[in-house]
Amino acid sequence: MKKLSVISLIFSLLFVFSCEDKVEKDTTPPELTIVSPTSGSTIGEIVQIKVQTTDESGIFKVDFYIQNSIVLSDTTLPYEYEWNTTTNQDGEYKVKVVSFDTEENFVESEISVTVDNESKKPSISEIDSLVYKDNSFIIYWSKNNDSDFKSYNLFISEDSMMSGKQIVFETNDRSQNSYTMSNVENGIYRFFQLITKDSYNLESSSQVKEISSFITFTMGFGNKRGFGGLIDGDNYVMIGRTTTDVSDESDLWIVKLDLLGGLIWENNYGGNQIDEGIDIIKSNGGDYFIIGTSGSFEIGEHVYVLKINGDGQLLWEKSYKGSRGSSIIEVGINKFIFLSEIQDSFSYSRLTEINENGEVTSTTDFTKNGKNVTGEQIIKSNDDKIILSGSINNSQGYLVKYSSTMNFESELLINSMTHIYSMIMDSNNDILVIGNSGGGTNSKTVLTMTSSNSEIIWTYVHNTNSYSLGYSVVQTSEGNFVFCGQNIFQKIDNNGNVIWDHNQSGNEIIETKDGGFIIFGGSLIKTNSVGKQN
Questions:
Q1: Closest by CA position to 157, among listed 205, 216, 197
Q2: H-helix or E-strand containing 326?
Q3: What is the C-alpha separation between 508 and 319, in angstroms, rounded?
Q4: Taking CA atoms, which of 68, 140, 353, 465 is between 20 and 30 Å from 253?
């Protein structure tokens, strides 16, 4: 019986082992479903890729792929991948998930989604305004009300493309809507852009805004009108006329202002004798010499020259023969020449040389065969010549060159201009004149460049359908030209190409130290370098 039992046991074990060899291996892959996002959907920011997967033998791992690149191998429930789409460009993407069971069986599922973070960017906070005040730039912007707001980031650059931009301010306070940049250098342009970020680091950018650190202002003076002026250090001096409250009589008027347009002093001169001041210079001795007129065109002494000091105190006042005075220059030590118009049977121009006390030392006249000659301005050239400009019968412009002792040397008639109002000598020692052609409503502003040999180099006609008269021109520090007049304020290069154009009136223009412009006229106008008031 014992032997039988042992033999039975052996046969039983062999039977069991034989049965185990006949069990089949698991070859069934897991079940897999991508729960979210759904195929064809549009997604953005942070997205959870969620799957459901089961298998009788158990799940070993789940692999997640974006565009066939594995991004996560997950071995624990729940099987999910947090996809930060903000690091990807917008567009269509393939999302693939592969599930493996413990027997190395696997199944994969794939969907297509569209990433669109552009529409999910934060609301744009635009720069509302930029102010230059007290040597500071103050930048204001609109507040952001998005629930996922993270920060404002303000950038600065020296050009409108924001190349080489630098961050100047950053804050997480959504209520903050301004920033002040102190100690700004005068006479510069800067460009600002505000970038708003959300909690997903998506960004939206404001438009680029420009500001300049130019002092600008417009000063009106009521019943007073300026005809010309000068820059004296950091001060502006304007001359003109003022109408009194009695019988509409006018006086020569002068005002001196500081760099910000603040009043330093203001005076009237001449009583009822001098109606207006036309031109002013500052002498090498530091005093002002002014030429004015009584406004009468009758024969007599109606041209006046005044000498005042820097505080506006009258030192002397003298009258001279003529109906109108228009220009005065300093030509040597204690020696001055002024231009006036003499009215007899016809009008002609007279150059009068005086000393520092207003005493006449010499005169010379320019006549033109009985034609009416109007002189507008004289300048001293770099080689000590005296250049006179004006018009003949108000129908033809002219330039006359005199020696330093007022001896006639040459003349140039400019047929393209009916009247010349002023001129400058440019950096090449050529003479640029400004005036007009035509008359009445057909008047056009004309600029003509002439050489030192009295040859016309080029002519520029202001192309506009409206009436304009050009009174004053200046060459800028970079070599271009800015001119003003009646209904015109324009900048051109030396080829006549327009750089900017504004509808502004003025009688005389000067470039200021910061590269802007001061315009003397009905008001005193200070602009930035592009002819605007910031």
A1: 205
A2: strand 324-332
A3: 25
A4: 353
- For 84-130, the pLDDT digits (tens) are 999 999 999 999 999 999 999 999 999 999 999 999 999 999 999 99
Q: Which CATH class is domain 127-212?
A: mainly beta
* DSSP-assigned letters across all residues of 196-210: EEETT--EEEPPPEE
The CATH homologous superfamily for domain 31-115 is Immunoglobulins (2.60.40.10)
Give burial (CB, 10 Å; 0-12/13-18/19+) of 533: middle
Provide the residue ranges of all domains of the chain, joining segments of one domain with +. Answer: 31-115, 127-212
Asked if residues 422 and 387 have their Cβ atoms less than 8 Å apart, the reply is no
Tell me the per-residue pLDDT of 331-367, one tens digit each, with 9 for 90 and over. Answer: 999 999 999 999 888 999 999 999 999 999 999 999 9
Tell me the DSSP string of 73-115. EE-SSS-EEEEEGGGS-SEEEEEEEEEEETTS-EEEEEEEEEE
Q: Is 465 exposed, middle or buried (0-12, 13-18, 19+ CB in 10 A)?
A: exposed
Which positions ≥6 away from 134 have C-beta within 8 Å?
A: none
Domains 31-115 and 127-212 share a fold: yes
Angle at 401 between CA 418 and CA 308, to 5 degrees: 90
Give, for 20, the enclosing helix (H) or strand (E).
Answer: helix 2-21
